[in-house]
């Protein structure tokens, strides 16, 4: 039985998922659950404290023209990367 039969996405689809997609899913989850950790900026944008540090580390950026660089592929978010993040200044 293959991955698709087990309900898993093909690896080629997983490579398309970026850090920014996980970030958005987290914020949407916080919104739907009414999580008190979710804050709002003056412009109405939701955020979670500390998320900007992760954004920088994983390459997420909202550009001046409001386009978004979603950062690294989730396949690059590994245990080694988490350890590297912990040691980052």
What do these coordinates show?
The protein is of the alpha+beta class and 89 residues long. It has one domain (11-87). 40% of the residues lie in helices and 13% in strands. The chain is built from four helices and four strands; from the N terminus they run ααββαββα. A two-stranded antiparallel ribbon has the order 1-2. The mean pLDDT is 87.
What is the topology?
Elements: H1 11-14, H2 19-33, E1 38-40, E2 46-48, H3 51-58, E3 60-62, E4 68-70, H4 79-87
Key words describing this protein structure:
89 residues; alpha+beta; two-stranded antiparallel ribbon; 4 helices; 4 strands; 13% strand
| N-C termini distance | 45 Å
Largest sheet: 2 strands, antiparallel
What is the number of domains?
1
Task: Specify the structural class.
Answer: alpha+beta
Low-confidence stretches: none
Task: Compose a concise summary of this entry.
This protein has about 90 residues and is of the alpha+beta class.
């Amino acid at each position: 039985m293959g991955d698709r039969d087990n309900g898993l996405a093909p690896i080629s689809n997983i490579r398309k998922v970026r850090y920014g997609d996980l970030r958005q899913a987290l914020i949407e989850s916080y919104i739907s659950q009414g999580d008190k950790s979710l804050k709002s900026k003056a412009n109405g944008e939701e955020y979670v404290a500390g998320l900007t540090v992760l954004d920088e580390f994983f390459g997420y950026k909202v550009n001046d023209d409001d386009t978004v660089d979603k950062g690294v592929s989730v396949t690059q978010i590994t245990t080694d990367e988490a350890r590297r993040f912990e040691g980052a200044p």
